[in-house]
């Protein structure tokens, strides 16, 4: 602050001075606030590497993107630095930033991989496929460390395997190893167990066949549940062709009458709810509401692959073993075996119908939902689809749900302010309060048992940064044009092509290049496999 004196002369010999206080309004510099952001997921990172879009678990609206400059460092740990270009979509990191509050800018100073990112991990799942020395288990890429062995269990007890190529596709593996920078898990120990159709699986699938009837325009489950379906031949063919491409090769090669084969069938349910469902006998239902929510064929393949995984990983059977509904059907085994007759068979069939009807539409545990997401991602890549679209679908759901929450919160805040200004101190009443599940639940839980939307997005991005970190995305497709044509027909705008690849029959395979034969006897699509270098 300065003081200025200005002389003022009046008549006579007197001179007065006017004192003015002058304030120097100099621009103040912003003082950076040092903040450590945890649980940060990289959304994208491309040349010229000046902006890092991220998803932050908290305060995401404040830090949608971080600025990168010459002083920004990227580290695997405290002692190991990495080039910034090694940052990939989906990586989980901890970021130290300088936050400039006035200009609302966040400048990244240090980016470090999350402590648990590349460390010892365990996994359990089906041995889906093999390419060279790399195997694909539980939707992840694995290799066996030299001189390490996998021990056989149950029917293979006493056997040891030093190579994945000596093991049987479709078997169950439990593995332990360490993930490297390429996202591949280097296995140091594990077990392998044969997978056969168990009595529980057979009973559940046979039970479904007894109580479920598919008609031209509906699927009936027992006497209480009816699901309207869209039966237009070309629309059905399109959905079926996508679904067929997602079925793993180890299952496709089984004869039609093989006891371990699953006959998948795909239907469009005329329901505006954004949802899909799988039944234990291989029926997959995709709601029209979900078809309107996805943007392309790749996103749809992620959803269908998720449902296929539920069936192949026998999530229904695991759920059945703990189901009070199923325990309430003492004669279920007798119905399936055909040992009951007359009134006893009729009463037991009714109980079976009600139990299966309830179970078929309920959700699975969050752990199994996450596994189905992971396996579905592998299936879509194996079928030639871009896995980044799966993450894009869930990001869109997050943004849509958040907009609904923000709108409701602003509405409530506005009503509260209006009541306050008018002197009305009565409690705020909102007719929508009882509909919390429709608004807030999609962000917290997709439903009561599904993982949080953000968790699903983060988990898928983790796989993009590891299992699929070196996939050549230029060889994978999104199928936007074909999907638009399909949706134009579904919504009545115009007639769509019969099916991807030119098939007009819902059970025919799409045309294209002849798959390459592998030593295992399974067929391979032309698409790049997870973990394949560009």
From TrEMBL:
Required cofactor names: Zn(2+)
Biased composition annotated in UniProt, kind: Acidic residues: 427-439
Chain segments carrying region Disordered: 422-447, 492-534
Enzyme Commission designation: 3.4.24.-
GO molecular function, one term: metal ion binding
Keyword Translocase: no
UniProt GO BP: proteolysis involved in protein catabolic process
InterPro entries, per database record: Mito/Outer_Membr_Metalloprot (IPR051156), Peptidase_M48 (IPR001915)
Keyword terms: Hydrolase, Metal-binding, Metalloprotease, Protease, Zinc
Low complexity compositional bias, start-end: 517-534
UniProt GO cellular component terms: membrane
Name of this protein: M48 family metalloprotease
């Amino acid at each position: 602050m300065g003081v200025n004196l200005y002389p003022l002369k009046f008549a006579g010999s007197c001179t007065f001075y006017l004192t003015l206080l002058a304030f120097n309004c100099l621009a103040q510099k912003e003082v950076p606030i040092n903040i450590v952001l945890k649980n940060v997921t990289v959304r994208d990172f491309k040349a010229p590497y000046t902006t890092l879009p991220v998803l932050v678990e908290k305060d995401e609206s404040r830090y949608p993107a971080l600025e990168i400059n010459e002083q920004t460092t990227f580290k695997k740990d405290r002692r190991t630095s990495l080039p910034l270009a090694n940052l990939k979509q989906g990586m989980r990191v901890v970021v130290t930033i300088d936050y400039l509050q006035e200009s609302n800018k966040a400048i990244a100073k240090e980016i470090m991989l999350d402590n648990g990112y590349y460390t010892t991990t365990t996994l359990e799942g089906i041995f889906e496929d093999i390419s060279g020395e790399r195997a694909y288990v539980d939707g992840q890429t694995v290799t066996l460390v030299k001189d390490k062995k996998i021990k056989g269990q149950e029917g293979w007890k006493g056997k040891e395997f030093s190579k994945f190529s000596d093991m049987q596709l479709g078997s169950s593996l439990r593995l332990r190893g360490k993930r490297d920078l390429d996202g591949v898990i280097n296995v140091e120990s594990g077990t392998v167990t044969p997978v056969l159709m168990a009595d529980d699986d057979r009973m559940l699938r046979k039970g479904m066949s007894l109580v479920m009837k598919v008609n031209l325009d509906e699927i009936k489950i027992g006497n209480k549940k009816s699901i309207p379906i869209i039966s237009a031949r070309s629309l059905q063919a399109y959905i079926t062709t996508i679904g067929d491409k997602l079925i793993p090769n180890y299952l496709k090669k089984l004869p039609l009458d093989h006891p371990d084969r699953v006959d998948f069938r795909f239907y469009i349910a005329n329901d505006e709810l954004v949802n899909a469902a799988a039944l234990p006998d291989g029926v997959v239902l995709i709601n029209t509401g979900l078809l309107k929510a996805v943007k392309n064929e790749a996103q749809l393949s992620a959803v269908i692959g998720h449902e296929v995984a539920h069936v192949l990983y026998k999530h229904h059977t695991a759920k059945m073993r703990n189901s009070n509904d199923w325990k309430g059907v003492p004669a279920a085994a007798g119905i399936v075996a055909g040992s009951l007759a007359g009134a006893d068979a009729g009463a037991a069939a009714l109980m079976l119908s009600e139990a299966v009807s309830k179970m078929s539409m309920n959700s699975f545990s969050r752990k199994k939902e996450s596994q189905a997401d992971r396996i579905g991602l592998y299936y879509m890549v194996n079928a030639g689809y871009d896995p980044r679209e799966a993450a894009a679908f869930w990001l869109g759901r997050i943004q849509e749900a958040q907009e609904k929450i923000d709108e409701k919160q602003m509405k409530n805040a506005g009503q509260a302010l209006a009541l306050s200004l008018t002197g009305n101190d009565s409690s705020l009443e909102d007719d929508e309060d009882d509909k919390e599940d429709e608004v807030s639940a999609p962000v917290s839980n997709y439903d009561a048992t599904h993982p949080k939307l953000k968790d699903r997005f983060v988990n898928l991005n983790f796989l993009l940064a590891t299992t699929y970190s070196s996939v050549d995305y230029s060889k994978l497709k999104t199928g936007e044009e074909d999907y638009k044509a399909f949706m134009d027909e579904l919504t009545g705008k115009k007639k769509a092509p019969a099916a991807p690849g030119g098939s007009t029959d819902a059970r025919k395979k799409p045309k294209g290049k002849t798959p390459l034969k592998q030593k295992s006897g399974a067929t391979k699509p032309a698409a790049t496999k997870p973990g394949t270098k560009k």
